[in-house]
Amino acid sequence: MPIRINLLADEQFLAEMRRRDPVKRAAYLGGLLVLLMFGWWGWLLYCKSAANQTLAGHSASFAKVEKRAKEVADYQKRTAEIERNIHSLHRMVTNRVLWSSCMEALQECTLPQVQVTRVRVEQGYAIQPAVVSRERGKSKPASSTENITLIITARDYGRQEDRIYQAFKEKIETHPWFKRHLIKENATRFKGFSNPTPDKDDPNRMFVTFTMECVFPEQFRN
């Protein structure tokens, strides 16, 4: 039987040993892990970029929504202010003094010996500015207090001892319209009298000029 001698056996053995070297396998494995790590890092960068784009889109949408929300809030604030003004105007309309009715009531209070020569209305407003406070419940809106006084100037042609002007005053105080609209106490008061004066059209007639105030209740508005 022939004997075969492999002259390359040593080199093949060494090549096989090198192929099975654990260091080389560890290097291959390490390289593979590095490649996987770079791949994972690239994937994270891609996800981050996609998330940033999504966030930018949402931020732009939120900015639009916030702008519209501010506009809506401003509209609501202006609407509330307009509604308050309308409510105040409505209160002013419903609570204001109707001077035509007042003149009609005054006409019903006249007496033959009393001649009304002048009717004047003093109408003033005391304005209280708004008070702004950071503490809850301390702020106050602006308000106003309306004061109305009806001033009547008239002549009393009756005898001095009859004091017809007093009867005129009592008639005003007992008239339904004035009882409903004037203040409850001390609603009418005299402010002055003149000396007896002859009438220029009839010097035989004497009169006393008197001034009387009719005070209306204060109207508070805010």
What does this structure look like?
The protein has 222 residues and is an alpha+beta fold. It folds into two domains: 10-95; 99-131 and 141-221, Alpha-Beta Plaits. The chain contains five helices and six strands. Strands 1, 2, 3, 4, 5 and 6 form a six-stranded antiparallel sheet that branches. β4 (197-198) and β5 (206-215) form a beta hairpin. The model has no long low-confidence stretch (mean pLDDT 82).
Reconstruct the topology from this structure.
Layout (H helix, E strand, L loop, with lengths): L8 H11 L2 H74 L3 H10 L5 E15 L14 E14 L7 H11 L1 H6 L6 E6 L3 E2 L7 E10 L3 E3 L1
Antiparallel strand pairs: 1-2, 2-5, 2-6, 3-5, 4-5
End-to-end Cα distance:
129 Å
Helical segment tally?
5
- What share of residues is helical? 40-55%
Number of DSSP strands?
A: 6
Mean pLDDT score, rounded? 82
Label the overall shape: rod-shaped
Amount of beta strand: 15-25%
- N-to-C order of helices and strands: HHHEEHHEEEE
- Residue stretches low in confidence (pLDDT < 50, at least 5 long) are none
Q: Under CATH, the topology of the largest domain is which? A: Alpha-Beta Plaits
CATH class membership of the largest domain: Alpha Beta
Q: Could you say which structural class the secondary elements and strand pairing correspond to?
A: alpha+beta
Specify the CATH architecture of the largest domain: 2-Layer Sandwich
Strand count, sense and barrel status of the largest sheet are: 6 strands, antiparallel
